[in-house]
Specification:
601 residues; alpha/beta; ABC transporter transmembrane region fold; Rossmann fold; 6-stranded mixed β-sheet; 4-stranded antiparallel β-sheet; 10 strands; elongated; disordered N terminus; binds adenosine-5'-triphosphate; Type_1_exporter; membrane; nucleotide-binding
Length: 601
């Protein structure tokens, strides 16, 4: 059951401003996973850049050496050195980029793995908070944005930064006054970028949010395609889609335009800067304070100085969007799992299946209590029926027995052991679950059965499949047990999927079983098959059967009637029918409904 509206919390918001820079630095730390290679890249880029800068210095030397000389011989060694520097710089950049590719791919691999693995540790409470589409967006779209940042501009940015630093050092060394003139451009550009960041930054954040909305809607539309067609809602869904798309378009344009304006602006600033350096330099030459060669070097350095800034700013949108996406990714990575093993938690030894609830209270969200003072006992091997109106809290009882959620107060014991004192994994190993919506993996039939228990052999699985009335239909599949179940088993009928999940639970061989309305939505013959398989599955195990149709729990050792989170009645079917209470009314209303159904057939 989905949470009632108003109960949903939202995913932690991505950081803003300084937080974004922190996120960018944090995501860049993943590059340090290959420290030696990264160090080699930095050294190679540095050598490449210094060689490149020396080319400009050599240009000045060449100009100076030509002044007043009639023979070109003196220029040859200079040209040869320049050629050597060019080749050296090329080789350094080439190897540097080659190594960087590996550094980047390792970083992305780890980031994807960390995110996926971390999400597996989070509790259902976390997944309740947001539509799956929103999470999908963070796992796919945001990772793609960071990938684009690492793959496209990162190398250029590294190169640019080195270029900026080495050029600055070279300029200061050649002539500190002229160097300061050239640096005016930096101040101007930083000012422009600061202004643009104030507008574009939030726009990029909003763009990612709109894209996440779009993903959510697409996911919902695809999952509900059958219902959409049945209720002829295609046009409405298309209109909703285009509404969200338009919002993404509008913030997208804002983010993009602002960051694109930066390009022509930086070109303008560059030209102005070169002009100013040429003017001041010429005045200095006239006054004898500078040689023509030094000015030539300076002009070429000024260009080299502004060029990396151009590249940095040209890639500004990558940097902005990557910082936003990195923030969104880290907001998931920083989410602490709230269902954790207590310090000193022990393995739950194989149990007999004695389950006790004592005064258990529970709420999904604070302030809205769902289960109130639930107490009951299930002896080993007993079948316990759970019934009651929709939203009464039947599934919730199961959710806390399996520790999908932690309770507010009370005690839950299995074979006398508090479930909070044992390791979650060892607890869940002993509880088999057959859900209302059978979930199968996109894998072969055999592997789906093997998911029940690590190490289950093929012979064992085939024998169980026979017991669970699956073998016959499996052998009729195109590749038998090797048939791949596409998209969670959509190539099987609902009943077949249910039979397979029953077989999987049999292979798991747990002492405690949870069956959640496992027999709904199937024809009578399949239902008989399922019932027979379930009876086999329940043999010798404590089972909790959540039933809407009371006929499925008539034979239960005990039936708990839940209403608004409280156990309002308990006993066997016969006892409660005789008592003519809540259960009796429930049963009679279903019975009458069934009779009128049969009469109208
Ligand atoms: N993840 C959740 N977050 C918040 N509230 C929830 C969540 N799941 C269920 N609820 C609320 O808890 C109450 C009990 O839900 P539960 O699913 O246990 O009912 P149920 O008896 O199993 O209903 P049904 O027979 O319709 O499946 C409902 O009011 C429901 O809105």
């Amino acid at each position: 059951m989905t949470p009632a509206s108003g109960d949903t919390l939202t995913l932690p918001k991505e950081p803003e401003g300084a937080g974004r820079i922190k996120s960018l630095i944090r995501v860049s730390r993943y590059l340090g996973l290959k420290k030696i290679r990264l160090a080699a890249v930095i050294i190679l880029f540095l050598i490449g850049t210094v060689s490149f800068i020396l080319l400009s210095v050599m240009l000045g030397i060449a100009v100076n050496s030509l002044t007043g000389i009639k023979t070109v011989d003196t220029i040859y060694p200079v040209v040869a050195t320049m050629a050597g520097l060019s080749v050296l710089s090329f080789i350094c950049y080439y190897i540097g980029y080659y190594l960087l590719a590996d550094v980047i791919q390792t970083a992305l691999f780890r980031l994807r793995q960390n995110l996926f693995e971390h999400m597996q540790t989070l509790s259902l409470r976390f997944y309740d908070r947001q539509p799956i589409g929103e999470l999908m967006s963070r796992v796919t779209n945001d990772i793609d944005v960071v990938t684009a940042f690492f793959q496209v501009p990162l190398g250029t940015l590294l190169m640019g930064t080195f270029m900026l630093i080495t050029t600055m050092v070279a300029m200061l060394w050649l002539n500190s006054w002229l160097a300061l003139v050239a640096m005016v451009a930096v101040v101007l550009l930083i000012g422009i970028v600061w202004l643009l960041a104030r507008v574009a930054g939030p726009a990029f954040g909003m763009l990612q949010e709109r894209l996440a909305d779009l993903n959510g809607l697409t996911e919902e539309t695809l999952a509900g395609e059958k219902t959409i067609i049945a209720y002829r809602q295609q046009k409405k869904m298309a209109a909703r889609q285009s509404g969200v798309s338009k919002e993404a378009y509008e913030v997208g344009v804002k983010a993009q335009v602002v960051s694109l304006v930066i390009n022509p602006l930086t070109v303008l600033v560059t030209n102005l800067d070169v002009g100013i350096v040429a003017l001041i330099g010429s005045i200095m030459i006239v006054k004898g304070a500078l040689t023509v060669g030094v000015l030539t070097t300076f002009l070429s350095l000024t260009l080299l100085f502004v060029l990396p800034m151009l590249t940095i700013f040209a890639n500004y949108n990558y940097i902005l969007s990557a910082s936003v996406s990195a923030g969104r990714i880290f907001s998931i990575l920083d989410e602490k799992p709230d269902i954790v093993d207590r310090p000193g938690a022990v393995e739950l030894k194989p149990v007999k299946g004695h389950v006790v609830f004592k005064d258990v209270n529970f709420s999904y969200v604070s302030g809205r209590q769902i289960l109130k003072n639930n107490s009951f006992e299930a002896l080993p091997g007993q079948k316990i029926g759970l019934c009651g109106p929709t939203g009464a809290g039947k599934s919730t009882i199961i959710n806390i027995l399996t520790r999908y959620y932690d309770i507010d107060s009370g005690i839950i014991e299995i074979d006398g052991q508090n479930i909070y004192d044992v390791k979650q994994e060892s607890l869940r190993k002993q509880i088999g679950v057959v859900l209302q919506e059978p979930f199968l993996f996109s894998d072969t039939v055999m592997n789906n059965l093997k998911y029940g228990r690590d190490g289950a052999s093929e012979d064992e699985c085939t024998a169980v499949a026979k017991d669970a009335n699956c073998h016959e239909f499996i052998t009729r599949l195109p590749k038998g047990y090797d048939t791949i179940l596409s998209d969670g088993g959509s190539n099987l009928s609902q009943g077949q999927r249910q039979l397979l999940t029953i077989a999987r639970a049999m292979i798991a061989d747990p002492r405690i079983l949870i069956l959640d309305e496992a027999t709904s939505n199937v024809d009578t013959r399949t239902e008989k098959n399922i019932q027979a398989a379930l009876r086999k599955l329940q043999e010798g195990r404590t089972s909790f059967v959540i039933a809407h149709r009371l006929s499925t729990i008539k034979d239960a050792h005990k039936i708990l009637v839940i209403n608004q989170g409280e156990i309002v009645e308990r006993g066997t079917h016969d006892e409660m029918m005789a008592a003519k209470g809540f259960y009796y009314d429930l049963y009679m209303s279903q019975f009458k409904g069934r009779v009128s159904e049969i009469l109208s057939e």
